[in-house]
Amino acid sequence: MIRNEHMKVAGQREIARNIYELVLEGELADEIKEPGKFVHVRAGETLDPLLRRPISIADYGNGRITLIYRAEGYGTRVISEKGLHGQADVLGPLGNGFPVEAAAPGTKALLVGGGIGVPPLYGLSRRLKEAGVEPVHVLGFQSEDVVFYEEEFIRLGETHIATVDGSRGAKGFVTDVMASLGHEFSVYYSCGPLPMLKAVAEGMAGTEGYLSFEERMGCGIGACFACVCRTDSNDRGYVKVCSDGPVFKAGVVTL
Amino acid sequence: MIRNEHMKVAGQREIARNIYELVLEGELADEIKEPGKFVHVRAGETLDPLLRRPISIADYGNGRITLIYRAEGYGTRVISEKGLHGQADVLGPLGNGFPVEAAAPGTKALLVGGGIGVPPLYGLSRRLKEAGVEPVHVLGFQSEDVVFYEEEFIRLGETHIATVDGSRGAKGFVTDVMASLGHEFSVYYSCGPLPMLKAVAEGMAGTEGYLSFEERMGCGIGACFACVCRTDSNDRGYVKVCSDGPVFKAGVVTL
Amino acid sequence: MNRLQVELPGLTLKNPIMPASGCFGFGKEYAQLYDLSKLGAIMVKATTLEPRFGNPTPRVAETPAGMLNAIGLQNPGLEKVVTEELPWLEQYDVPIIANVAGSETEDYVAVAERISKAPNVRALELNISCPNVRCGGITFGTDPKIAGELTRAVKAVSSVPVYVKLSPNVTDVTEIARAVEAGGADGLTLINTLVGMRFDPRTGRPVIANGTGGLSGPAVKPVALRMVYEVSRSVSIPVIGMGGISDVDDVINFMSAGASAVAVGTANFVDHFVCPNLIDALPDRMDELGIRNITELIGRSHR
Amino acid sequence: MNRLQVELPGLTLKNPIMPASGCFGFGKEYAQLYDLSKLGAIMVKATTLEPRFGNPTPRVAETPAGMLNAIGLQNPGLEKVVTEELPWLEQYDVPIIANVAGSETEDYVAVAERISKAPNVRALELNISCPNVRCGGITFGTDPKIAGELTRAVKAVSSVPVYVKLSPNVTDVTEIARAVEAGGADGLTLINTLVGMRFDPRTGRPVIANGTGGLSGPAVKPVALRMVYEVSRSVSIPVIGMGGISDVDDVINFMSAGASAVAVGTANFVDHFVCPNLIDALPDRMDELGIRNITELIGRSHR
Ligand SMILES: Cc1cc2nc3c(=O)[nH]c(=O)nc-3n(C[C@H](O)[C@H](O)[C@H](O)COP(=O)(O)OP(=O)(O)OC[C@H]3O[C@@H](n4cnc5c(N)ncnc54)[C@H](O)[C@@H]3O)c2cc1C
Ligand SMILES: Cc1cc2nc3c(=O)[nH]c(=O)nc-3n(C[C@H](O)[C@H](O)[C@H](O)COP(=O)(O)OP(=O)(O)OC[C@H]3O[C@@H](n4cnc5c(N)ncnc54)[C@H](O)[C@@H]3O)c2cc1C
Ligand SMILES: Cc1cc2nc3c(=O)[nH]c(=O)nc-3n(C[C@H](O)[C@H](O)[C@H](O)COP(=O)(O)O)c2cc1C
Ligand SMILES: Cc1cc2nc3c(=O)[nH]c(=O)nc-3n(C[C@H](O)[C@H](O)[C@H](O)COP(=O)(O)O)c2cc1C
Ligand code: FES
Ligand code: FES
């Protein structure tokens, strides 16, 4: 069930430059059955900024959810600085997440994330591991100062970091690292900027894959048609990222 | 000099229902030479609420100013709830205050305040007392739950409280109390809603008096012509409450 | 007696609150959140003769206390709306106002004729004011003569009362209002969105793929109130007011300005429960203001 | 070379930032706060032939991310402006743009002729768009023919270039823009305020004593940007853009949309140092965006 809840802020900390980890407590947490869903967060309580911000659920459990977001634009800065006075106005859980069951127990799954696309992969990786799947992580960032959750991912499985400027891990893009991996994957999952998703999908052509998309949103629940993507694979000719996604099987959305 | 300063919040407390006392620290405090001036306070830091709120300086000294305001409308509620995170964006001091020197030492001065017009009279009363004038206070409120600073005023001199519903002090208006005072006053000072100022000025006709006015403001410094009042007593035909006032000698502003 | 009840041509409203067209789809999504029977009415998404995909993305952008949209009337087309969307809504006890759009008079007429026969459609809202579609649309809404003629053509075929939705992007909104009243409109709805833009400082280009978009939300409320005030004084048909409504005093104020009922658009994205919340808040606020029946508010600023 | 310098008819601007008319009086008040010589120019308060008292109070009201005003062109009148206000401003090294208003063509012509001879007045801004005065004013700004004729009449007597200030309360702002260009305008300034209202829920009456007021501030920015974009593409004279500017990216965006310089109005009430702050912030932001000279920004969205 979708709830609109004033969730209690159990903690917020800056885990990398302008990247915040926000832990929220409330009943909404118990509604989440799948990693990769998102919540729609109100920034402040006045009329400016007006719209909610979509943020992936990075992790969930025990009546809590964890969000990891970059405070760069106007609204996310308000959220980080002062929008959250002990509580946050959150709508969710929204959308469809990553299918954990797509990876058979005992197989390896590839998880590829870029920047603020990394957070939902953490919850996914935990669930995969619980299901007996071996997650392998390839995480791309701009530079060392914005790398986050490296330790957390390492604890769950093999983890490769790439930075554009080479200041941490391999220099280059996630696809450069992927090319050098010698594993067999039953399935891949990816979240990040569109050009990255495209490159990942090309590199993994032939393997079953799931991609999580971003689009500007209005309602976040499928009512306003703000967030559509073209697709050739259904009769409508489009999907809505907020309610049909944000996760789609590779090949559904025209890249 | 007029400063725009992010003043440090030294303390805020609710002193009556929806009435807050806010103590601010900063260099602006040292610019104040006269009671009855005001500051222009920004509510929040986003674009809504947009305009600053004019609030009288209730007291000042030792690098601090005290504001007393009613959090009733949109902006003042934002100020009280969350607008002030350790600091407040304040422009001031603005306008012209009460002339303390109008009351000769050894004489009695009448101070009449209504509701949120009471605060600036506190700073005035302190300065009068320091100057050897004996202040007599008549303070009107709606009802007992919004009465504030009674003790503080009593410490400075004779103090009469009137409430509209009689729940504290005399039942009725300040003018009812004024009629029953047996004193001789060299001068009177008043701040409150327009009908009260009018009644006070009528009741005190013949005595030198100073009235503090309220008007909706834009700039707060005399540039936008939002806050004009008609007057017959100067060649322009009007005064600006923000820069010519808010305090005017009784008779200047057409009531 | 229901204090919140309002009677309008074709519509008996339990309360004067309805979601605005385009902000509520065909109701399915919000039905997950609350019981749609609670609403005074529902203004469903614009319907065109053929299915439309709409504009490229990004289609929305935030602005100070507002937003821009250029959805481009994406909708599944008349056939699907009358065979799937509207029948699905029949399970709720709520009148539907069907928003009708097109590029040519013939499109409007064809959609109006068929959609007005759907059992739960109690009124049409002629969308002559959408700023986000290139052909037709916007000119219908800015030329009084064309607007009047279109109204007449649609009235001739509609089985239910016809409300015309006015554009705020005009020099004199009362001129268009009078023209569509003369054309036989049963009511007016206003305002649609103001045309606006947002730019990306890095690229220097518009943020919305379409270039311009329609501005809505609290930012436009003062303009909407002014137009509702002006229009309701210059016509004798009822007005449904909208533009930036987000709290109960906004409802009171639009009705004071002259609206007989109100629609809520953008605020549904900010507080997804805003419509039922407003309905619940109205009686208490009316008590505070000494208003017995909501209809007392209508146009009280004119008196 | 000064990276921020902009050359416009009659105006050599140290930087493209100037306070907008009506939000800065004749400079005296802000001169207490900072050195006016820092500004690109100053658009002073509207001047009419005779002194005006203006409208009753309340004259201003807050709205979401904006404000309404109905000052009513209060000003000390031509005589006092040219003998007192303008001479006082001569102590600063800053070009003055004199905002000229009136009810009849003759008023405009008389004010323009005399005020354009003041030594520090480098340009006129013809205010044909003030929504808060009853006679004249607003019709000049909404009728292309009358606007063109007024421009021609004023051009005939003005000793300095003439900019015409456009109203956003029109169906097609480019039509008026082209008409005043044809009338000989040297430049355009836009936008003036949108007509709006606010109501008091307790009384049901308008908050502004005048009933309607002019909406300004960040709320109107998307409309202003759109109009600057449209107008700058349809005329060949320069445009000074305004409407809701409050930060350095707003300046960049208005110039990207097609403005050659910008004016800041309402924001002066929120941050009284906004103009010098913007001037100081521009070079750093230009560095971040890889812009060498500010003029590179002008109209880059059109290319
Ligand atoms: C399904 C989904 C999940 C997301 N998960 C995360 C996450 O876990 N962590 C994280 O840091 N970010 C995430 N994002 C991106 C995040 O929503 C944007 O970074 C954020 O909305 C930007 O808002 P702002 O206030 O910083 O910027 P502003 O510039 O103030 O935003 C203006 C408007 O544009 C929208 N917008 C701007 N950038 C984006 C974007 N990239 N995607 C969607 N809308 C955008 C905003 O929501 C807002 O409506 C996610 C986006 C989507 C769609
Ligand atoms: C010189 C001066 C001194 C003042 N001193 C005090 C004081 O010491 N304590 C105190 O509680 N109040 C004082 N006021 C009144 C105070 O400014 C208003 O109560 C406050 O601005 C209301 O803002 P809001 O956010 O509560 O209401 P909103 O309804 O959100 O206000 C909307 C707009 O109207 C203006 N406004 C509303 N009411 C008034 C009013 N009565 N006077 C002026 N502007 C108004 C606001 O400033 C704002 O611009 C003073 C006013 C003036 C002019
Ligand atoms: C995302 C979005 C889509 C809209 N689609 C339509 C539409 O299809 N038909 C229509 O008549 N109006 C449409 N509108 C306009 C609204 O119905 C309403 O007139 C306008 O948004 C003002 O109200 P608001 O400020 O409450 O949103 C749309 C508005 C938004 C924000
Ligand atoms: C209080 C106030 C007074 C104004 N007076 C005038 C005026 O005298 N002449 C004029 O041309 N514009 C006047 N304007 C309009 C502004 O110059 C400007 O065009 C408009 O406010 C939009 O800019 P902004 O959003 O930055 O305020 C006034 C605006 C305000 C807010
Ligand atoms: S955000 Fe409204 S449909 Fe997806
Ligand atoms: S508030 Fe601007 S002149 Fe007084």
Automatic annotation (TrEMBL), chains A, B:
Gene Ontology biological process terms, A to Z: 'de novo' UMP biosynthetic process
Binding site for FAD: 53-56, 68-70, 75-76
Annotated metabolic or biological route of this protein: Pyrimidine metabolism; UMP biosynthesis via de novo pathway; orotate from (S)-dihydroorotate (NAD(+) route): step 1/1
Keywords per UniProt: 2Fe-2S, Electron transport, FAD, Flavoprotein, Iron, Iron-sulfur, Metal-binding, Pyrimidine biosynthesis, Transport
Coiled coil: none
Protein family per UniProt: Belongs to the PyrK family.
Protein's name in the database: Dihydroorotate dehydrogenase B (NAD(+)), electron transfer subunit
Source organism per UniProt: Bhargavaea cecembensis DSE10
From TrEMBL, chains C, D:
Subcellular location: Cytoplasm
Superkingdom of origin organism: Bacteria
Catalytic activity: (S)-dihydroorotate + NAD(+) = orotate + NADH + H(+); (S)-dihydroorotate + A = orotate + AH2
Pathway: Pyrimidine metabolism; UMP biosynthesis via de novo pathway; orotate from (S)-dihydroorotate (NAD(+) route): step 1/1
One Gene Ontology molecular-function label: dihydroorotate dehydrogenase (NAD+) activity
Keyword set includes Acetylation: no
This protein's UniProt keywords: Cytoplasm, Flavoprotein, FMN, NAD, Oxidoreductase, Pyrimidine biosynthesis
Binding site for substrate: 45, 69-73, 127, 192-193
GO cellular component: cytoplasm
Known EC number: 1.3.-.-
Keyword Nucleotide-binding: no
Residues binding FMN, per UniProt: 21, 45-46, 99, 127, 165, 191, 217, 243-244, 265-266
Enzymatic class: oxidoreductase
Catalytic residue positions: 130 (nucleophile)
Cofactor binding note from Swiss-Prot or TrEMBL: Binds 1 FMN per subunit.
GO biological process, one term: 'de novo' UMP biosynthetic process
Family annotation (CDD domains): DHOD_1B_like
Dihydroorotate dehydrogenase catalytic domain: residues covered: 4-286
PROSITE patterns: DHODEHASE_1 (PS00911), DHODEHASE_2 (PS00912)
The protein's role, per its UniProt record: Catalyzes the conversion of dihydroorotate to orotate with NAD(+) as electron acceptor.
Known partners and oligomeric status: Heterotetramer of 2 PyrK and 2 PyrD type B subunits.
HAMAP family in the record: DHO_dh_type1
NCBIfam families attached to this UniProt entry: PRK07259.1 (NF005574), pyrD_sub1_fam (TIGR01037)
Family named by the database record: Belongs to the dihydroorotate dehydrogenase family. Type 1 subfamily.
PANTHER family found in the cross-reference section: DIHYDROOROTATE DEHYDROGENASE (FUMARATE), DIHYDROOROTATE DEHYDROGENASE (QUINONE), MITOCHONDRIAL-RELATED
Protein name, UniProt field: Dihydroorotate dehydrogenase
Gene that encodes the chain: pyrD_1
